[in-house]
Amino acid sequence: MKQYNKNFLPGHPIIDQLLSMIPKEVFNEVVEQENSDRYYKKFKSADHFICMFYAVLTRNGSLREVCENISLIAKKLIPFGYKQLPARI
Length: 89
Fold this sequence. Notes:
The protein has about 90 residues and is mainly α. Helix content is about 45%, strand content about 0%. It has one domain (about 15-80).
């Protein structure tokens, strides 16, 4: 018997669904509290969090691997505010 869950959207990648569970207000409050965007140039805290979150989920072993793989799904992360790709090392 096939189970149907209303929260699961088959057209969206799992990373999109997991990121949608993190409230933006809470994330922005922590960024403001810790002042983590104080000295950024292009890569804000939200972009960095998405990259590291993706790296943990996919068990990437190096930053180069993260950069290559995140560029493949970058267009799907635009609705979550992802604006800048990480620079290749």
